[in-house]
Amino acid sequence: MSTKRLSWLAVLIVTGWTACSGDGDSNQPAVSTAAPVVAYVASQGSREVMAFTVDPGSGSLVPVQTVTFPSGTIPVGVAVSADATFVYVVNQGADTVTGYKITQSTGAIAEVPNSPFQVGTNPVGVTVTPNRAFLYVTNQGSNDVSAFKIQPGTGTLTPLAGALAGTSPAGIAVSPNSSFLYVVNQGSNNVSAFLIDQTTGALSSVSTSPFAVGTTPVGVAISPTGSFLYVTNQASNLVSGFSIDQTTGKLTPLSSGPFGTGGFSPSGTVMAPSGAFLYAANQATNNIAAFSVNGTTGALTLIGGSPFPAGTTPTALTITPNGGFLYVTNQGSNDVFGYSISGTTGALTRLNGSPFPVGVTPRAIATPGRP
Question: Which are the contacts of 160, defined by CB distance < 8 A and separation ≥ 6?
Fold first, then answer.
């Protein structure tokens, strides 16, 4: 695995500002409207994680805190629990995941007991289940998934038995009902699907898994209803689409796909909380593809004006819980672009004050609840 290819990975997280936190699962508790909405950015080059509050009116990112990691530790992925209580950071250089407890009134973070926690080799992706019970990490070097139980109250991680994935697993996402885990395998061009034991967190393969996708898949997003799954394929410049059997977790390719992005090297992908729009970061052409989503068939259609300009080498995307703002990390220009989202068309408009400066080589951005 080349350094360049590793830099393409994005861990993509979307959340709900109110009852849609937890990837659209209305059974999950809402993030308190009294607390500020926060975003966390992991920058691998400067070995730091920055915490921001999101201005609810303008969408501006306001810096709260910067946490710098020791030499040799490379933060590349971030996931936040659906209730905005804990944030977890994957450290590629140290083969660990660091846990933090969030001060909900400010968004500031403090390390949880016994952190960091050992994972597999060369970890890149991380996700917290919508029910906040378990955490999973993709390890590109050891071609597997590390699993943990999250201790309520403290956020400490207890190791569980993991599972083998395909070659160079990258993007990772959990279904809204916390029943299925999907892992994108960058090297073997497929998606591994797992059943999650709701009591123990143990993983078992879905029947006929893995499922073929395009060339060099990286990002993955699941619709808020849990009906559809989408994968970005960097080398084939396409988005693969699947319907999800919500009983078995099995994936069936959409007959209308795959879908062109209007650009090259799509990396991260994220879906609006409403499920009406899907976005993908085109790294090689420095723009963002925007799609409308057919809620019945799952088919994607590029919306007017797409793709929309971004910074240099855009990688990871997130959307605020009310669906009003989208943010993208730009690895080449060391910043985050912010956009307002048209609720009618899904079109993007750059925010005043954007771009927002971050550390060197920002790799991932997260708000509570996804992937």
Answer: 134, 147, 148, 149, 200, 201, 202
Buried b (16+ CB within 10 A) or exposed e, 215-251: ebbbbbbbbbebbbbbbbbbbbbbbbbbbbeeeebbb
Which two tokens mark 243? 């319907």
- Which three-class secondary structure state does DSSP give residue 3? helix
Q: What does the alpha-carbon distance between residue 355 and residue 352 come to, in Å, rounded to a whole number?
A: 8
Q: For residue 3, which phi and psi values (nearest 5 degrees)?
A: -60, -40
Would you tell me how many other CB atoms lie within 10 Å of the CB of residue 114? 13
Average pLDDT over every residue of 21-46: 62
Give the distance from CA 164 to its chain's centroid.
21
> What is the per-residue pLDDT across 1-26, written as a single tens digit (0 to 9) for each?
333 333 333 333 333 322 222 333 33
pLDDT band for position 34 (cuts 50, 70, 90): low
Residue 147 contacts by C-beta under 8 Å, 6 or more apart in sequence?
Answer: 134, 135, 136, 137, 159, 160, 161, 162, 163, 201, 202, 203
Q: Please give the structure tokens belonging to residue 187.
A: 């090297």
For residue 330, is pLDDT > 80?
yes
For residues 288 and 40, what is the distance between their CA atoms, to the nearest angstrom? Answer: 20
Query: What separation, in Å, do the N-terminal and C-terminal C-alpha atoms of the chain show?
Result: 24
Tens of pLDDT, residues 155-201: 999 999 999 999 999 999 999 999 999 999 999 999 999 999 999 99
| Residue 79: strand pairing partners | 88
> What is the torsion angle, in degrees rounded to the nearest 10, for the CA atoms of residue 362, residue 363, residue 369 and residue 371?
160
For residues 49-85, one letter each, b for 16 or more C-beta atoms within 10 angstroms of the residue's C-beta and e for the rest, the string is bbbbbbbeeebbbeebbebebeeebbbbbbbbbbbbb
As a whole number of angstroms, the distance between CA 283 and CA 50 comes to 22
Q: Which residues on adjacent β-strands are paired with residue 316?
A: none
